[in-house]
Amino acid sequence: MDTTLLLPSVQNAAVIGGITAAFGFLVYLVDSLVNNYGIQPITINNKKQLQVKGGSPLLFTLAEQGIFVPSACGGRGSCGACKCKVVTDVGPHLPTEIPYLTDGEIKQNIRLSCQVKVKGPISIEIPEELFNVKRFKTTVESIKSVTYDIKEVRFRLEKGQTIDFKAGQYAQIVIPPYGKIKESTQRAYSMSSKPSDKEHIELLIRLVPNGIATTYVHNYLHQGQHVELVGPFGDFHVRDTNATMLCIAGGSGMAPFKSILHDIAEKGNNKRPIWYFFGARAVRDLYYRDEMRELEKVIPNFHYIEALSDPLPEDKWEGELGLITDVLDRYIKNVIPAEEKKEMEGYLCGSPGMINACIRVMNNNGVTNDKIYYDSFA
Q1: Which of 204, 199, 194 is nearest to 264 (CA)?
Q2: Which candidate among 79, 111, 183, 190 keeps its CA 20 to 30 Å from the CA of 290?
Q3: What whole-number distance in Å separates Cα of residue 359 and Cα of residue 306?
Q4: What b/e string do you get for 45-54 counting C-beta neighbours within 10 Å, with b at 16 or more?
Q5: Domains, in order of start, for the chain
Q6: pTM for the whole thing?
Q7: Quick one: how far is CA 179 from the chain centroid?
Q8: What are phi and psi of 90, to 5 degrees?
Q9: pLDDT per residue as tens digits for the range 301-328
Q10: CB contact burial 79-104 (16+ within 10 A = b; e otherwise)
């Protein structure tokens, strides 16, 4: 996931992708029944070659070889995350790919690996860090409700396994068939655990109506259950600069920042200003409040600001009011010291709409796109 580029029109892509994904799956099903492509070579980064059984999508073929390309939708062609460069000519881009690719990516022959089938020799380019991605066998150690619709799930890795990741990265949880869901799938969630704890992975999972993964986690998952996770993925992490950090999140977007802030606290060497804005509708949507206040005491130059857009009368709210973007704008203009505004970086985690709105506010206040990094819930 490239966190330095502006978001495409995610809503339009989702609509088009949903329609075309069904058609793409039907084509794949018929093709797999009719054709037999034998053993085919895949050359990766012009140096590694695999001999694989042809006929399956590139995403799944690579996964069978222990190479995991990120896919937030489990390979259904509805997220656009599984991009890779295909050097070989494998035909024109499919309608299922185009909604998720920019004109520049199409010209570079960037493809969705879940939509490209291995029918002959193929050469691809992928980020080197994907060779470090692993599939982990875990046991659910604890499940805790942190709000009425967000659960904190802590997974203990199988004995002998450890994970190395940067604070801010994400993992994919493998969801088995359940209820009316007949096929296994995967979904991506930012890790909220500390990188120093190499034997656990912690995720914050918000219940989404009719969401395959979130419904499973909230209604079926239980303590002691065995679950597979794949990761780490992503390049959402703190850059090594002295720039003021403007962090904005809402809902389960708390996850990467919880990991980042604890990592900073443990290292104990922070000198840069950090302003963390967390937006919610009402008090019932706020969580980890005491934890954030304690981190304010531990991390020098760290400020935690909560804002409510629609507090309830019983909340008796006396804090910041309004959309988090409006609060961010006010703080940049009127609260953050001039010295701290000379160089700023944006770190965002939330819905596409929130992220795009925050980018506009930051742009209007002198933060350029190349200094804005984000994780989107698209």
Answers
A1: 194
A2: 190
A3: 19
A4: eeeeebebeb
A5: 10-130 (3.10.20.30), 133-233 (2.40.30.10), 244-376 (3.40.50.80)
A6: 0.84
A7: 26
A8: -115, 20
A9: 999 999 999 999 999 999 999 999 999 9
A10: bbbbbbebeeebeebbbbbbbbbeee
